[in-house]
Amino acid sequence: MNINAPNFVVVMTDDQGAWATGAATPELRTPTLDALAAGGLVFENFFCASPVCSPARASVLTGRMPSAHGVHDWLRGDNDGIDTTGISYLQGLTTTPEVLAANGYVCAHSGKWHLGDARSAPPGFSHWFSHRDGGGPYYGAPVIDGGTERSEPGYVTDAISDHAVAMVGELATGDRPFYLQVNYTAPHTPWSSENHPADLLDLYRDCEFPSVPREQRHPWFDHVSAEFDRAQVDPRPALRGYCSALSGVDRGVARVLAALEAAGVRDDTYVIFTSDDGFSCGHHGYWGKGNGTWPLNVWDPSIRVPFVVNRPGHVAPGVVRTPISAVSIHPTLVELADAPLPPDPLAAGTSFAPRILGTEDVPAEPVLVFDEYGGTRMIRTATEKYVWRHDGPEELYDLVADPGELVDLSNDPASADRRAALRGQLADWFAAHAVGEYDGGARPVTGLGQRSPVWTDQADADRYVWTAKRRVETE
After folding, report:
1. Domain Sulfatase N-terminal spans what residues (predicted)?
2. What is the pLDDT, as a whole number, of residue 362?
């Protein structure tokens, strides 16, 4: 064990698009997160591996794409009457906390898990406070505390912060480096006033949110949430709740940073802030993320997320504009910890630790980012994006001339050669980064949820939730 190894605090929000930061949306009240970004390294073009929570989180922890870890959609669980006891969707896969724990780290978790049974700590973790489900009401949330399930009477964002602060106090007194992930359920719905404290809501009482576009409803916008339909008509109540939830995260992060300072370990700790997936609050004419439309989408509001790394005296403030995928978080943290990375032939990411440490120049070769959601797959360069679907339309965008992805060139004869080349690159890459039973490319993933791991004997027609409209024809 390297006694000089750094600590890590990884803060992850739930459904925060890259637009939802103080720099991009000035009316957002997040002074702590704004200061963290101003004093840290901001990655402007950072993309999740899948535009929905559970697959994206599994990819962060394993460095694999969904078609190599088998989590294809958001996971339905106990709040839907599905007993998750003993179910681990990451069974047999190596995760960041497992690697770090094997190399002397103490690993802790406070907040959302949403990758199976949260009643006991998964491999690698020794400190555990978790939301039982993937989300839900902000008051009365079902949580696992000390191995016991109970209802959290207070604001769950504050409870996650409370436990994170307590964990910092305990972990910092030990003689081993620590890894702490603080996974908020915010700013995920619900956004109604009874779900958020009055002092947070009052921050946005008369706000008109002029920085958030009001765009015409996209014909693909098709979400089962009545809250999203109302928001498309009048976005202000929803935006008030969404931004209030983020302000709650901001004050929680302030407390975690203060705890690091009080323990004397702030300069020894990488603080990383990001989100599991993006989110649209009317951008591009829809509300939601990848499953806010049918067919499922991988437009930038759904896949582009904030990513900030801050460590005083070690990470120079600045901005990185090179596109990077969240599948690269796993190898990056392992390298920053100076730990050996176990070989994985299906690893989809590469470490960007040299970019964080300032020892690597801008890559000479074009950087490609890949994304997937069931049978929807994407390849994105700095200048173009191509989307292929197993059962649905293709898309092609010129991101230089059309950064808003408004003009689909997939049927333009002049773009046929470029479309074919990108389609070939996409197919070749997924052939090397997907595997047999985990491959989701031809499975009936609809965005309405996954009920069981792919390695169980449940039929896919029952494993994935579908409706008459959202039905995928499989081979």
Report:
1. 6-338
2. 57
